[in-house]
Amino acid sequence: MMIPIINNILERFFAKDDRLNNTQIFGYFVEEPLKDEHLTLGFSPSRIALKKRWRNNGLSADFIAEYLTTFFPRDTHEDSKTNTKSEIKSAVSYIANELLENAIKYCDANVEYPITLHLELQSNEVRIFINNSVTASGVEKFKSFIKELSDSNPDEFYLRQLEKNAEDENNDGSGLGFLTIVNDYCAKIGWKFQIVQHEPDLIAVTTMVQLTV
Fold first, then answer.
1. Looking at residues 185-195, what average pLDDT do you find?
2. What is the pTM of this model?
3. pLDDT in tens, 95-151
4. Which domains, from first to last, does the chain contain?
5. Long-range contact set of residues 145-152: C-beta below 8 Å, sequence gap at least 24
6. Rounded to whole angstroms, how far apart are CA atoms 128 and 124?
C-alpha cells in the first residue's frame, strides 16, 4: 500500500510532460531520484495562521536535519577538514527552513495545492526538493530572478540585493536566502516550473538544492 503512495509523491517532483511544453527547467536540476534514504513531509499552507507556520517551519527544518545526521558518524576531530556532523545539521536545517518559508510565502493562496518537502541521501550527496504552487505573476518575477542569478557572479549579486534591501525596506523578493545557500554552502540549485492543471491553470515550481557532505 505504501509503495504506490510514495511513487505518487515522487511523481510530483520528477514527472515530465514535454509534449505540451508544460515543463521548464532552470539551473542544476536532477530528474532522477536517488535510490537510498529519503524522507517526505507535506504541508497545507492555509491550514494554520502564518505566524504559527513560521514556528512550524523551523521545527520541521530541525527535524529533517536531525533525521539526516543519524546516518553520519559522530564528529571525531574539531579541526577536521571534512564537513562535521554538526556542520551538516546546521546547513540542512538552514536550507530546509529557507525553502519552506519561500514556498509558503509565495504559494498561490487561491488554489488547494499542498507544499511537499522531500529529502534524499546517497553517499556524500544530499538533495532537498520543495514543490509548491505559484501565481502566474509570481512565475515571471521568479524567472527574472533566476536569469539574473545565472548571468551574475553570486557574490556581486548578493551585494546588489543587499543594497536594494537597504534602499527599499518593503523589498521582500530579494532572493537573499537562495544566494546564501549558493554562496555560504557551495550548493547547486535548480528549479522546475510545471503546469499541473488547465482551466484554470495551476502552476507548480519545484526547487532543488544539492549539497555535498
1. 95
2. 0.83
3. 999 999 999 888 988 888 899 999 999 878 999 999 999 998 899 999 999 999 999
4. 2-207 (3.30.565.10)
5. 145/173, 145/175, 145/178, 146/26, 146/27, 146/191, 147/26, 149/27, 149/175, 149/178, 149/179, 149/182, 150/26, 150/27
6. 13
Residue 89, all three cell numbers: 545539521
3-state SS class at 133: strand
Task: For residue 96, give every residue at least 6 positions away whose Cβ sits within 8 Å of its Cβ, in sequence order, or none.
Answer: 60, 61, 64, 65, 117, 119, 128
Using omega within 30 degrees of 0 as the cis cutoff, is the peptide bond preceding 73 cis?
A: no
Q: Enter the C-alpha cell of residue 45.
A: 499552507
Could you tell me the CA-to-CA distances from 78 to 68, 74, 86, 199 in Å, in that order? 20, 11, 10, 57
Q: Looking up cell 556532523, which residue turns up?
A: 85
